[in-house]
Write a structure and sequence with these properties.
The complex is a heterotrimer of chains A (about 375), B (about 475) and C (about 90).
Chain A lengths: L5 E7 L3 H12 L4 E4 L8 H4 L14 H11 L2 H4 L6 E10 L2 H16 L4 E5 H7 L9 E11 L4 H12 L1 E4 L4 E6 L4 E5 L4 E9 L5 H5 L9 E10 L9 E4 L5 E4 L5 E4 L5 E3 L4 E3 L2 H14 L7 E12 L6 E4 L6 E5 L4 H16 L17
Parallel strand pairs in A: 1-2, 1-9, 2-6, 3-11, 9-18
Antiparallel strand pairs in A: 3-5, 4-5, 7-8, 8-9, 10-13, 10-16, 11-12, 12-13, 14-15, 17-18
Helix pairs in contact in A: 1-7, 1-10, 3-10
Chain B lengths: L6 E7 L3 H12 L4 E4 L18 E2 L6 H15 L3 E3 L2 E7 L3 E6 L4 E11 L3 E3 L12 E3 H10 L7 E6 L2 H12 L3 E7 L3 H5 L2 H4 L3 H17 L3 E2 L2 E9 L2 E10 L4 E11 L1 E5 L2 E3 L2 H5 L4 E4 L4 E4 L12 E3 L9 H18 L5 H28 L15 E3 L4 E2 H10 L4 H8 L12 H12 L2 H4 L11 E2 H5 L16
Parallel strand pairs in B: 1-2, 1-7, 2-4, 7-20, 9-16, 10-11, 10-16, 11-12
Antiparallel strand pairs in B: 5-6, 6-7, 8-17, 13-14, 14-15, 18-19, 21-22
Chain C lengths: L10 E2 L3 E6 L2 E6 L4 H7 L6 E2 L6 E2 L12 E4 L2 E4 L10 E3 L2
Parallel strand pairs in C: 2-8
Antiparallel strand pairs in C: 2-3, 4-5, 6-7, 6-8
Classes of the chains: A alpha/beta (about 375), B alpha/beta (about 475), C mainly beta (about 90).
């Protein structure tokens, strides 16, 4: 419900980036509206595997992921406790010599960025995770890992928004944004107009069409990520399992269900802009999972789904001012964005409030123009 | 009955009357046809017969057995391949159908045209105690009686609405069991108003009179306009409390009647099964009369997706006899697609069937009306009643999520886990939709749970098969 | 003879065999439906619900509700879609 039609700031896109940014802006006293063309956190942010991973985070983004991880471990402080956060170590497995080389190379790149990763022998890994396939050669261990039941993200943000006074408007697609130099005017479908002093584009995959409002053309690539969940089974996993080539993530929630991911692609349905599974990729993903934890073979798959993630042409994020337009900001396309979201949303808010001291040229939009 | 072939012109999923009819009409035109069903017998839910190991004692021939025999004859005569005991778990466009069998082996077939005849599943609106063992569905009870030849209990209470109430009660009595009471949501007037349409369908009327006869002669008490308030386990029995509802203002009367029984058969109508269709992205619409989501189809039962048909009660509930006729039409239409029949012949044949179908229209509508529970049934679900059985989620938790802002069923699913269990929301979707719509006022905007495969849970063993680590499809490694 | 919720007027059943439910011997007829065979022997509880640990039995009998999932000869299978074989081993999951 729109309570009024003028706001200090309007955030467009209610995924993890937009929601965290809006949260901090509202806490700082700005009148804040957050909009989404659908429901809150129902795109990538609400359907991802929830892995708080360092092993699979891109090396350059490790510092952000680590800070994000710390915030996730402390959700009671800033988000609320209706979301389940599980702290477990992460094990990245190598099954062949090629795997070993790859694992060492990738882990070292992350260690250089500050990731607390060390290497375990086969024996040590099996000690830690008894149900591992005994054919592993070695593993990389990171104590900073874990997961969240991401489907609850929308719930916790909805609750805290009520507390801190963020106005949420769902199922509202913006037709056009106009700018008269002083304010932004957002035109909604039913001819309602919303006026904002500052605007933040946090539209994930849809940043490409949003940036067109400001006559900016950049390509945002769609990464349709596929996931698989099993029914509840007896506890067989204590850690988050990944694999040297990065194409497996495996975890077991407290309720016993097991979630399998790893970036096996599905597809994007052009007609309705929704995710669609690619059945061929189901088999390879499950084979990797069963190879890593053979005990999984006896469980039943309940569902295959996915989300649409975004990637820029150099695969690095966008965060910062929209060039040549005052009071307009953009954030998105972070690999492992769910992990780093709580931190980068906070940074975005600081930037908007004029309080940032850190330079984030790495993420500037200008580099893509 | 063999299914060694991999490619077919037409595959039919579901071997009930509409599925059999589709297969028969297609095959009679020369198409290569496969029919798949997860049961061990032909006939679907309507014509259930005992397993092969049962031997007839008396020289009785039930309708179910006769139908099954004639189905088998038609299948054999027309050279239709059959895959029984196969559970379809995935259907891809183009079409590729994956199924697993009793040995957990994964098999697949390809076809040009797909006909879905998966029928319906039962709607049961929750009430306190509905999850107790011994409380089973009405449709489930017909399977128990007709196929397994087992009584639901020594003393059974039958409750809910629709023709199945009479079928089950009469079936128990005929099998030598005792029906403690019939608890009917509807009134005698509701039943009487369905008599006129039944006149157009004499065999059904005859059947209905038979049920009534059994029930009346047994002296079974019938409570009209009544709902189950709660069921509790007392020693080895179920204590069933019922209340009467004033149909004019939906207010409960103060009187409470307690019945003792060892089993309760309850059902509130049938819901068309459109899982496969929806997972393929076919268009659907919400029908306000039956309060169900239905597929958008043309008069030949073709969905919004080319070469994809849906027949039988899955396309809209009208009963078994019209289902067969509808199946014939779809089979001929599918044959026309593949040029196994020419348009002239097609028009002549189908026009005749349409004339037949017209006679059943009113009958079907009145049966559907009888099995649609009135809106006050939502009050049976108390705050403490489990709504999502798979995940143990109570109405109170659902209401809480709605209060925070969940207005659409998939959003509610994300916030509560309703529909995330093994049944993937089939059992609770209808009730949850009703609860949400109480708050948002509009049933249509509540939506449907997104359908994804596997349509039925499948063991990982069946999916992976035998493999070597090195052979796992070489996928580009993740970014550094 | 097994308990009689079984209707025996019109049909005779196959061979009487032993099956094992949670390691206890139960008599049943070869080829009959497993869910109703157990039910007829007063075995109505087939599982316990995940959060509240409440007893559940079969409910829909058409393979939809998943309430009758059991470990049958070592595999997770729905009892309502299974048929009795001699020495069948059934465990609650």
């Amino acid at each position: 419900m729109i309570h009024k039609s003028t706001y200090d700031v309007v955030v467009i896109g209610a995924g993890i980036m937009g929601c965290t940014t809006a949260l901090h802006l509202a806490k700082s006293g700005m009148s804040t509206l957050i909009l989404d063309k659908g429901n809150i956190c129902r795109e990538a942010s609400g359907v991802n595997a929830g892995t708080l991973t360092i092993h699979m985070t891109r090396a350059q983004l490790i510092p952000y992921a680590m800070k994000g991880w710390k915030l996730w471990m402390n959700t009671k402080e800033w988000l609320g406790d209706d979301i389940e956060v599980t702290k477990t170590p992460g094990l990245c497995l190598a099954f062949s010599e090629a795997d070993e080389k790859l694992l060492v190379h990738r882990s070292n790149a992350r260690i250089q960025q500050g990731a607390p990763i060390k290497f375990l022998s086969k024996k040590e890994a099996l000690n830690l995770e008894p149900n591992l396939n005994p054919n592993i050669k070695m593993a990389a261990f990171c104590e900073m890992d874990g997961f969240v039941n991401s489907y609850k993200t929308g719930l916790v943000f909805s609750k805290i928004f009520k507390k801190v006074g963020v106005n949420l408007l769902e199922n509202e697609k913006i037709e056009m944004v106009e700018n008269n130099g002083k304010s932004f005017f957002l035109k909604l479908k039913n001819n309602n107009i919303i006026e904002a002093n500052k605007i933040v584009l946090a539209g994930g995959l849809w940043l490409e069409e949003m940036l067109k409002w400001f006559k900016i053309n950049i390509r945002i690539k769609c990464l349709p990520q596929q996931l698989i969940v099993t029914e509840r089974i007896n506890p067989i996993l204590k850690t988050v399992i990944t694999i040297a080539n990065g194409k497996l993530s495996l975890k077991q929630f407290s309720n016993g269900t097991t979630l399998i991911g790893g970036g096996w692609p599905g597809q994007r349905n052009i007609d309705n802009d929704k995710f669609e599974p690619l059945p061929e990729n189901l088999i390879g993903n499950i084979q990797l999972a069963c190879h890593s934890i053979p005990a999984l073979k006896n469980s039943r798959v309940l569902r295959v789904w996915g989300g649409l993630e975004a990637e820029t042409k150099d695969a690095m994020p966008i965060m910062g001012k929209i060039p040549q337009i005052d009071n307009a900001f953009v954030i998105g396309s972070f690999h492992s964005g769910y992990t780093s979201g709580p931190y980068v949303g906070y940074l975005m808010a600081k930037m908007i409030l004029g309080q940032d001291e850190i330079k984030h040229d790495l993420f500037s939009l200008s580099r893509l123009l | 009955m063999n299914n060694k072939n991999k490619e077919y012109d037409i595959i039919v999923i579901g071997a009930g009357p509409s599925g059999i009819a589709s297969a028969v009409s297609s095959a009679s035109n020369g198409a290569k046809v496969l029919i798949i069903d997860l049961n061990s017998n032909l006939g679907g839910q309507v014509y259930k017969t005992p397993p092969e190991t049962y031997k007839k004692i008396k020289k009785n021939s039930s309708k179910e057995i006769r139908m099954q025999k004639s189905f088998k004859k038609l299948i054999d005569e027309n050279g239709i391949d059959v895959a029984l005991k196969h559970t379809v778990w995935q259907v891809n466009h183009g079409f590729k159908i994956y199924a697993f069998n009793n040995n957990n082996q994964n098999v697949f077939w390809e076809c040009k045209t797909l006909i879905i005849a998966t029928g319906t599943y039962e709607r049961i609106i929750p009430f306190p105690g509905w999850t107790l063992p011994g409380v089973i569905g009405l449709a489930a009870s017909t399977t128990l009686l007709k196929s397994h030849r087992v009584l639901p209990g020594n003393n059974t209470v039958v409750a809910g609405c629709g023709p199945l109430l009479a079928v089950v009660a009469s079936g128990i009595i005929k099998a030598g069991g005792k029906v403690g009471a019939i608890i009917d949501l509807k009134s005698p007037f509701d039943w009487l108003s369905s008599i006129r349409p039944m006149l157009s369908n004499p065999s059904s009327l005859f059947e209905g009179i038979g049920w009534l006869k059994n029930i009346i002669f047994s002296g079974t008490p019938i409570y009209f306009n009544s709902v189950i308030k709660e069921v509790n386990k007392k020693e080895n029995e179920l204590e069933i409390s019922i209340t009467k509802i004033n149909p004019r203002n939906n207010r409960k009367y103060d009187n409470k009647i307690k019945l003792k029984a060892d089993s309760l058969c309850v059902g509130h109508g049938l819901i068309p099964s459109i899982d496969i269709l929806k997972s393929l992205g076919a268009e659907i619409f919400f029908e306000s009369e039956s309060l169900t989501w239905l597929p958008k189809i043309n008069k030949y039962f073709q969905s919004s997706i080319e070469n994809l048909y849906i027949v039988g009660d899955g396309s809209g509930i009208t009963g078994a006899i019209p289902a067969y006729e509808k199946g014939l039409i779809a089979g001929h239409a599918a044959s026309l697609d593949l040029e196994y029949i020419n348009s002239e012949k097609f028009i002549i044949i189908t026009n005749k069937i349409f004339v037949k179908l017209k006679k059943f229209e009113n009958f079907g509508k009145s049966m559907a009306k009888l099995m649609t529970p009135s809106s006050f049934i939502i009050n049976s679900i108390t705050k403490e009643t489990i709504v999502c059985r798979c995940e143990d989620i109570k109405r109170a938790e659902i209401e809480e999520a709605i209060k925070i802002g969940a207005k659409e069923i998939n959003q509610l699913k994300s916030w509560t886990r309703c529909g995330m269990g093994p049944c993937q929301g089939r059992t609770c979707e209808d009730s949850i939709s009703r609860i949400i719509s109480e708050h948002v006022g509009d049933r249509k905007s509540v939506g449907m749970f997104t359908r994804r495969f596997p349509i039925q849970p499948i063991s990982m063993n069946s999916v992976v098969g035998q493999f070597k680590y090195e052979d796992i499809i070489n996928v580009e490694e993740g970014p550094l | 003879m097994p308990q009689d919720l079984r209707e025996k007027n019109k049909y005779s059943r196959g061979k009487l065999v032993k099956i094992y439910f949670n390691n206890e011997e139960v008599l049943a007829y070869e080829g009959e439906n497993l869910a109703s065979a157990l039910y007829s022997s007063d075995i109505k509880i087939l599982r316990y619900s995940p959060k509240l640990k409440m007893p559940r039995g079969f409910f829909c009998l058409i393979g939809s509700c998943q309430e009758c999932l059991l470990l049958i000869n070592g595999r997770k299978t729905l009892a309502c879609l299974s048929y009795v074989t001699e020495n069948m081993s059934i465990q609650i999951i």
